[in-house]
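Subject: for your reference before the review

Hello V.,

The reviewers asked for a structural picture of the protein, and I figured it would be easier to keep everything in one thread rather than splitting it across files. Below is the amino acid sequence we used in the manuscript, unchanged from the supplementary table.
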Amino acid sequence: MNGLPDYSALWLIPAIMLPIFLIGWVVQLKTRNASWVDVIWALGVAACGVLAAVLGGGDPALRLLIGAIYLLWFGRLGWHLLTRVVNDEDEDGRYAHMRQWAGGKAPLIFLLFYIMQASWVSIFTLPAVVIANGALPPVWAIVGGLTLIVVAWLGESLADRQLAAFKRESGNKGKTCRKGLWRYSRHPNYFFEWLQWFGYPLLGLHAVYGDLLWFAPLIVFIFLYYVTGIPFTEQQAVRSRGEDYRRYQRNTSMFFPWSPKT
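And here is what came back from the structure prediction:
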């Protein structure tokens, strides 16, 4: 390690992100469109990952690497979400349903939701903070970690492009995408999002608290599988696509890519 550990990002990140999300909450009060929260979250993680790399006291090459990974991974995700929100005038169905369910309590419910999203930026940036204060791991760990992250980046990018292309075809309105990666998993984008987190423990092999990064894939899996990812997405898909999506559920693996049932 070329310098002393600098964990100032641990308090600086929430201090920056909380006001930004509160501004986003105020904006959605006026526009009644909370879809932008996903864009703020993804670009926030990208920016805070770079900030953690800048402030870190570890090996400069490792700091540059982790900063670039966060910028490319979450920057791509943010851009993808941004184009989707800009091209869709209506609020995301998940948030529209949440607004309808909350009724008169919607402002409070969304305030708590925005605060929660701000806290998740800090949680998802923790690997960058740890790695940015570490020493370079062995070559095999760097190659293995980068391979996992690159494969996951390509897989999620491909899944997003395939779904976007399917939605652009007017004849597919109300139908479920079963093309490409979506033939083998109902949520290939979430699967590859989860896969990338196995790369960070390898990059943090020689970092203080680096062993704790092995919990990252488990935490992300719980988030995606049980909390904010799949449950909300599946519920909205059933509401909007009905029996077509129920058939998709019966025939297609929910998370891990697998051959569909015939």
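For the response letter, the relevant points are probably these. Residues 139-168 form the longest helix (30 residues). The CA atoms of residues 81 and 87 lie 10 Å apart.

Happy to draft the paragraph if you're swamped.

O.
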